[in-house]
Amino acid sequence: MKNLNFKGIISVLAFIGLAGFSCFWTAESLYIWQPSITRIGAWLIAVVFYIVASLCFSLFLKGFDKNRYFQSGLFSSRGGHLVFGFIGLVLFWLMVSLPTNTHTLLYRASIKNVVTTDLNKTLGYLQELKDNNVEINKVEDKYNSKKEAVDALVLRLIAEIDHPGFEGIGQRFEKILVELDAELGTTIQRNANVGTTRTQWLTTVNYYQTQAYAQLKLFRAECDKEIERIRGLMNSPELNGLIENSKIALKDINQMNGISNEVIGAAVNDLTSGYAFIKTNSQYLMLKDSDVDRYTREGAMPDAKAMLSVPDVWKDFLTTDKYKGHGFIWWVFIALLVDLSAFIFFDIAFNSKVDNNI
Q1: Residue 116 buriedness (CB in 10 A; 0-12 / 13-18 / 19+)
Q2: 3-state helix, strand, coil in the chain (%, to 5)
Q3: d(CA 2, CA 293)
Q4: 320: which residues sit within 8 A by CB, 6+ positions away?
Q5: Residue 229 CB-density burial (10 A; 0-12 exposed, 13-18 middle, 19+ buried)
Q6: Is 216:183 a contact under the CB 8 Å cutoff?
Q7: Beta-carbon neighbour count of residue 283 at 10 Å?
């Protein structure tokens, strides 16, 4: 019993426990990012990289030990320990373990909320496309604008026959008729005998008014056809399918216990299809200013899809405020604390063995 090294045993157990967490986070991140490597492959990479990073940490620490004797040579010298230990830490820990661990912690804490928010927003725009309120309102506004202009010109015709000093139908009256022709896009048939009394003039005005509103009625019919065409265009099986799939995905996410990569993956696929449809038909939508770039930029992708990629997550963190409020710095700190603790326990537990190997 007295030969047992309790300090070493505790250090080994602590290292295994902490390294287990770290390797799980790394493997999870790698598999989420690149599922083609399989879970076994992800775990193999995580374990190998973590062991190498731990060895490099011990190697790096030895370079600062003033009481240690170093031999000459590239790998055996103090400088060799410091340089190669540092390079190993950068390659295997700072570039792999730490970023992937942070990614997993952020992903597991935030992905459900990110997917739900994105699904609700995208579903809202898809439903807006189906309802066609924006594009139909454009057609209605076009008709109402023309009708108001015609009404105003007809009133000017009536007022013109009573204009002081210019009573009756003359050149000023004809100029208003020309404006009415331009507004209607056709030429109103002129009355050869406009008369000489107010009653006769009003009869002429009524004759022109009847023609104007007949043309306006034809324009209304054209607008109605345009509205039906828009409704038919947007009431497509593809759009209906996207809406239905988004609703199913939203229901599955809300009912999800923990984190299911299969459920999230299906939701991301639905979101990707929704983004593409919205981008293609963005002219029919009143996108919010903050959403224009989100849906229409080159290479636009759902926030949830971007969260699957380790480089994209770190790029967005460093260049945007997308992850503000998601505790990103906190997850970096947790990943850093776990890894550094594990490295220290590794150094305590295996320091003598590493020394003998060196």
Answers
A1: middle
A2: 80, 0, 20
A3: 69
A4: none
A5: exposed
A6: no
A7: 9
Cα separation, 122 vs 149, in Å, equals: 38
Q: What is the residue-level pLDDT of the chain in tens, covering all 358 positions?
A: 456 677 888 889 999 999 999 999 999 999 999 999 999 999 999 999 999 999 888 888 776 666 665 566 555 666 676 788 889 889 999 899 999 999 999 999 999 999 999 999 999 999 988 877 677 888 899 999 999 999 999 999 888 888 777 777 888 888 999 999 999 999 999 988 888 888 888 899 899 999 999 999 999 999 999 888 877 777 778 888 999 999 999 999 999 988 888 899 899 999 999 999 999 888 888 888 888 988 998 888 898 888 999 999 999 899 888 888 889 999 999 999 999 999 999 988 877 544 444 3
Read out DSSP for 10-50?
Answer: HHHHHHHHHHHHHHHHHHHHHHHH-GGGHHHHHHHHHHHHH
DSSP string, 166-188: S-SSSHHHHHHHHHHHHHHTS-P
Please tell me the distance from the alpha carbon of residue 336 to that of residue 30, in angstroms, as a whole number: 18
Would you call 91 helix, strand, or coil by DSSP?
Answer: helix
